[in-house]
Amino acid sequence: MLGSGLLLVAILAFLSVMVLVSVWQQKIRGKLPPGPIPLPFIGNYLQLNRKDVYSSITQLQEHYGPVFTIHLGPRRVVVLYGYDAVKEALEDNAEEFSGRGEQATFNTLFKGYGVTFSNGERAKQLRRFSIATLKDFGLGKRGMEERIQEEAGCLIKMLQGTCGAPIDPTMYLSKTVSNVISSIVFGDRFNYEDKEFLSLLQMMSQMNQFAASPTGQLYDMFHSVMKYLPGPQQQIIKDSHKLEDFMIQKVKHNHSTLDPNSPRGFIDSFLIHMQKEKNFNSEFHMKNLVMTSLNLFFAGSETVSSLLRYGFLLLMKHPDVEAKVHEEIDRVIGRNRQPQYEDHMKMPYTQAVIHEIQRFSNFAPLGIPRRITKDTSFRGFFLPKGTDVFPIMGSLMIDPKFFSSPKDFNPQHFLDDKGQLKKIPAFLPFSIGKRSCLGYSLGKMQLFLFFTTILQNFRFKFPRKLEDINESPKPEGFTRIIPKYTMSFVPI
To answer: Distance (Å, rounded) from C-alpha 243 to C-alpha 235?
Structure first.
């Protein structure tokens, strides 16, 4: 009886604390943007569609407006919805919104190190160095173009080897795109059948999928407890160790073969800078080198290949669009030379198609979380330092003020009355502000060169009826994923 009484007292005490916390949160919320009332400990989690968080966010903004507050477990998040709110925050108040918000899945690996998931002076130093170094290795220049063309040539040979048989293009594209960033980071590329390479791609893909899943959302909210419990997060933790160990070995190899006068890639340049850096508190140390290299490898391996894969599905669903791209390629490039990046200036329709693939796919509509770097007044609200922010980049891609038929795949969204490419302010696939994607020029170049090179050599064929093509990405927690499919690359 005594034990039962103590248990009851403990439960009542716990509930009392939770009520007090909730009351305290409500006082804070009087200064914050409005939002649904959170429950103690779990916040607004039960009020969200865990399989489609983006739709839940869209519904909440219809009630609370473009700036509102939600609680994901004990974590408080301010949501920015629509072009005006996102631009005002990330561009007009860039410094205040330049922190990196919590992402437990990736923090399990990066732990606040590296250029992408760090904050403060560390993030600033690593970003400046990374941008300058990537430019040195030809990012946006001819040297980078040649690397992409080399990989595109290898991809064409692989696809020709399929002899028009139906295949899942996922790994073909992943290996090719990943090798571009590999050549930048390591100074060398992988053999396409390298087992370690394939294992890396698999682990990165699984980590991205877990982060977007309902279980990943729970881990994001309650990672301090869940990291000790059984479940799929334990595999993610193991894979994090494997990815870090891989990069440590890569760095050690480059260090043992380093020529300070001839850096082969990003790792070599970082090592050389480490040797020159005399400041005891410098951010140029081994942990940041390992994690920044992993940041770049992650970012450069997934997005472009996913966009290409989804683009092929859309072109099969819309054969009239594919035909127009083929016509422009034949007219501007022809069959006798490999596409060059400068060709994009003469190919407005192909560019419009690539832009529309990016807009329509909307893979990461919630954006990458930001964090308030200092107490900030925004639109009459008070945002305390350390508050996480979700800039809903996907809301820009479906804004009817900028796109006449946002639910339809329509390259005309990006063409003016004369058939020329037009700039749309809300089209920001690489985000904006001080934490925008630092590899955006590489991404743009890869999309154009891989897309045109493949279409120069192949026509696409779906093994079933066109009506069977499901072109709508499937909601999956915080993201949207491409339906699995097979297709044939028919040589021209």
So the answer is: 12
The angle that helices 170-185 and 286-317 make with each other, rounded to 10 degrees, is: 150
Pairing of strands 99-100, 370-371: antiparallel
Per-residue model confidence (pLDDT) at position 286? 96
The crossing angle, in degrees rounded to 10, of helices 142-160 and 170-185 is: 150
Residue with tokens 């020329």: 420
At 298-314, the pLDDT tens digits run 888 888 999 999 999 99
Q: Which residues pair with 369 in a beta bridge?
A: none
DSSP letter at 482?
A: P
Decide: 269 and 136 in contact? Cβ < 8 Å.
yes
Q: What is the pLDDT of residues 220-235, one digit of tens each?
A: 889 989 999 999 999 9
**Rg of the chain (C-alpha set):** 24
Other C-beta atoms closer than 10 Å to the C-beta of 92 total: 11
Q: Of 5-9, 209-213, 228-232, which one has max mean pLDDT? A: 228-232
| Structural contact between residues 92 and 65, judged by C-beta atoms closer than 8 angstroms | no
Q: Cβ–Cβ contacts within 10 Å for residue 53, how many?
A: 23
What is the spatial distance between Cα 464 and Cα 457, in angstroms, rounded to a whole number? 22
Is 437 annotated as contributing to ligand binding?
A: yes
The pTM assigned to this predicted structure is: 0.91
Q: How many CB atoms are located within 10 Å of the residue 165 CB?
A: 10
The angle that helices 170-185 and 440-457 make with each other, rounded to 10 degrees, is: 140
Distance CA 465, CA 106 (A): 40
> What are the b/e assignments for 287-316, b being 16+ CB within 10 Å?
ebbbbbbbbbbbbbbbbbbbbbbbbbbbbb
- Compute the distance between CA of residue 130 and CA of residue 277 in angstroms, rounded to an integer: 16
For residue 43, the cross-strand partners are 39, 72
Domains and CATH numbers, the chain: 30-491 (1.10.630.10)
Residue 90, Cβ density class (10 Å: 0-12 exposed, 13-18 middle, ≥19 buried): buried
Matching residue, tokens 């499919």: 485
Distances (CA, A) of 339 to 142, 335, 346, 466: 13, 9, 12, 29
Residues 6+ apart with CB under 8 A from 308: 169, 173, 177, 447, 450, 451, 454
